[in-house]
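seq/struct pair 1
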Amino acid sequence: MELETQGVFVDVHYDYQEAEAMVYNYGDGSGYPGSPASVDIYKVTVEDVDITDIIADCYLEDLQEQLLNWHTDEQ
């Protein structure tokens, strides 16, 4: 997916995991706290050049936030 961060358009390759709901009580009395939605970015490219290893963490966090917002808005 193509996204923009700090005025640069990048292609982001990632995995998305939907949020899992909390289970208050299974039949045996146990439960599950649930988990939030998550995005794992595994590759970022600019004009087919892989910049994953050199992109700053703050930009990766921005991209993750954009992707989470996009998936949330789609549902």
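seq/struct pair 2
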Amino acid sequence: MKKKKIHTEGGKDKEFDPELLRMYMMGATNPRFSNKIEFNEEAIDLHLEKTDAGSGKIPPQDALFHQLENFEKSLDSAIAAGKLEIRVIHGLGKGKLKEEIFKILKKHPNVRSYQNDYHISYGYGSTLIQLK
């Protein structure tokens, strides 16, 4: 991305790099010298047994919260890694998890589009997400 010029109070023009600013805002301490974020997952599987839920059982009232938290972390990692497309596996069930994921995706600024897409391995229990 090109550097952009901004006007300062002293009348001097300064340049800044929007990509560098984005990386700082994403939490990088020194993005020019840091390693790239690794995101090698083909799909984000939100089934509780596939997540890092730990050895204990999650109470039913906390399961959805845990799955959504895992989804948001994985989505942020994919965006930071520069992915253009990811797939989230939410399963079929009653559709509550998919509904909540769609609410997040609908207002997320880095999501270009999403659709409940058929996949040979997951059926209609997954959503394909196109990122900006």
